[in-house]
Every structure is written in C-alpha cells, then in structure tokens.
Amino acid sequence: MALPDFFIAGVPKAGTTALHAALARHPALFMSPVKEPKFFLTDGPPPAEGGPGDAKTYREHIWRRADYEAMFDAAPPGTLRGESTPFYLYSRMAQQRIKALVPDARLIVVLRDPVERAHSNWTHLWSAGLDPCGDFVQACEQEDRRIAAGWADFWHYISLGKYGEQLQQLYSRFSREQVLVFRYRALVDDPADTLDRVCDFLGAPAGLLADLPRENVTAHPRPSARHRLVATARRTSAAVSALLPDHSGAVLTDRLEHLLQQDAAPRRPLTWEQRRALIPRFEPDIRLLESLTGADFSDWLLPRGDSGGLVGARPSGQRQARNGRPRQF
Fold it and tell me: Using only C-alpha atoms, what is the Rg of the chain?
C-alpha cells in the first residue's frame, strides 16, 4: 500500500507549508505533491457547506483512498513518504483514523504562540477576502457562533490554538516516541538545526537541509471601500466556483484574491492590546501544555516586542499558497 510513513500534523499558520517544501528537497524523503490533502479529516465525502469559501475548499479534499494512495506512487523505492495536513492535530477523529490505518506513523507538530497563530490565521482569510470581519479580536469573539453554524476548522482561531488539549488526545493514541514537538520560532530562527532534528526523528540523514523557503507569506490589505467591494465579489465567486467541475472556477477567485492583495502592506504585527484581550482565552491550556511537555511556555503570556513570525514583504511574484492542489516543490 502506498501510504505515508509520517505526517506534519499541526498546526495551521506555523510554517508547515515551508517545512513541507524544505523536506521535499531531501533525497530520502518523498512529500505528497498536494500539500494538505486532508484525507483523514473525514470518513467519506467532506461536507458541502460551511463558512465563506468552505464549499470550494471541501471540493479540494482528497477523500477517496485510491486517489490518496496514488499521490505516493511516484515515491522512489526506499524513501520515506510524508504528507502535511496541519488540522490532524486538531481533529480527534483524524488522529483515530491515522492510528487505525498507519499505527506506526511518526507525527511532527510545530507549535506557535497561540495569539500570534490566531492573528496570522485571521489575516490569511481577511487578505483573501473571505473573513467578513475586519477586526481581529471581534472575529475571534464570533468563533462560537461560527462553529455552531458549521464553519470549517480554519475559522476556529481560538480553538486551533488549544495545543494542550490536542496533544493530550494525541498522546492517548500514539507513544511520545512517535511524536516530535517543537516551536515555530526554532524553525524560523535556527532552520538548519531544526531541520536536522526533524530528519533525525524520521530516520533520514541529517545535514542535507540548511534553510527554510519563504512560503505562504501573508499580505495585509487595509480596510477600504474597494476592499469591501472586491472581498464581497471574492466570497460570491467562491460560492459559485464550488458548483463548477474540478478547479474550473479557480481562475476567477484567484484573480479577485490577487486584486485584494496587490500592493498590500506586509502583515502587521500584533499590538499588546490585541494580545492582552486574547491571552486569558489560552492561559489554562498553556498551563496544561507545560505539564504535558515539561517545557516552559510562559513567554506566550507576556507582552511581545514583535509578532513572532515572518512579518515582512512577500517574496516577489509569490501569492498565497495553493494548498489542496498539486504543486511543484
């Protein structure tokens, strides 16, 4: 069976796209040509409805097993096969399905300051014209209503950052020897050493990967009448394109997204006021995470002088990552 040997299982907006691209350069590793196939998120077809753009995204799920296994057919003999769906950590059912089908799998989890992760998550959807709320904190306050309405996991800005709860579930199904946990900051600040840690964990030769490509860097359009108009059109086009076969509607939605992000400013750092408003939502879970891992995460509860991420101009010619579609790495 052509199934993966390992997964980048978490978390969204913590460098998983860049990590996937970096590992794809390793001669002993084969990364799926589709980043985020989301196979283990459902047992059968994904839902058909949800929040803005969800129906279109659901159509990109590779949920048929034959299609999923076909992604790994091109893996050279002897290579370790991997895929990256950073929602697997969040989904208890995904963890259960992985355990049933690939019980010896190794799982990589990258943890990012949960407030910063939530901010990057919201900015991603705001810049794509999909989140109708232009205020980050207010968007977080709408989460319970959105979940009740069936909006997909990527809209769960707060819940996705409850790493303690998620790891507790993961450790109940997989031995700790099968799970590698490290910080997003380690990936950004010391990529060579961190990539060596990943290779050692997987049993692949270390010392072959030295840098992390800048992938999935988010722009930050400023609120304006133009932004509201184009964003409304973008959400409408996403709903319409979901009704069209394959990715035939992607050209229109991609063009509207490009218009939204054209000449947009880099993602703005978090303010202390924003952090202070949201830290209490995470503090109990951070304490649970510390008890589970024995590591100190108290810096996540403090003011920060920067947003802690790759805040800067998007590389020339780059657009938002097209997860769910085949890519060339």
Answer: 19
| Cis bond upstream, residue 198 (ω within 30) | no
Q: Report the C-alpha gap between 315 and 139 in whole angstroms.
A: 28
Whole-number Å distance between alpha carbons of 82 and 76: 13
What does the pLDDT read at residue 322? 56
Instruction: Please give the Cα distance from 162 to 19 (Å, whole number).
Output: 22
Interatomic CA distance for residues 232 and 75, integer angstroms: 42
Q: Enter the DSSP assignment of 40.
A: G
Beta strands, E only, the chain: 6-10, 29-31, 80-84, 106-111, 179-183, 219-220, 265-266
What would the 3-class secondary structure string for 292-320 be? HHCCCCHHHHCCCCCCCCCCCCCCCCCCC
pLDDT category, 256, cuts 50, 70, 90?
low
First to last CA, the chain: 24
Query: Tokens for 140?
Result: 């977080």
pTM for the model stands at 0.84
